[in-house]
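At your convenience, could you comment on the folded chain following this short note?
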Amino acid sequence: MASPDFVPINPTDRVRAYASPPRRNDSWVANRPGDVEGSQPVGPRLGTAGPDQGYAFTLVDLFDDRLVLGSVDHEDAVAGCVAVAMRRSALFGRAPVVHDLTVAFTVFGFLDSSPDPQLVSLREELFAEVKSSHHYSERRELVDLVLEDTLRLSHTKVEAQYASDWRSNLAQ
């Protein structure tokens, strides 16, 4: 590594060079306490691991002027729908894109200027305080409420399905 000019060096010192660590003859094995053996565990409230999931929070700004929240707090709506979008992106093994958020906001009617009153009362109940880390289990319930088949559809098909019957997107 180069050093600044003001650092005194002895011209007769040997210059260090990079050396690779010694090669291991045996293969790597998951034997540390935190290593997951086999595949990622699947089950209720375990979530879905995916790359760069936090990028969904950056994409939320694209929806700020289109969201119709009613009495749902903005941060609660964002926290719940971002969690749904992250699950959708992870199902495809990629980072979140704008269409993941479109699906999430559509399923709960946040992009509809006049959503069904039953959906409005349902989302008021589902999204209450999900932004708080103390309500993680409620956020997971909200995410698990959206059918995996719905999450695998294109955003245009989800929009069409929402328009015909919003209940078909949710497990109830």
Q: What stands out?
A: Residues 74-91 form the longest helix (18 residues). The helical segments are 55-59, 74-91, 98-107, 117-126, 136-145, 148-151, 155-164.
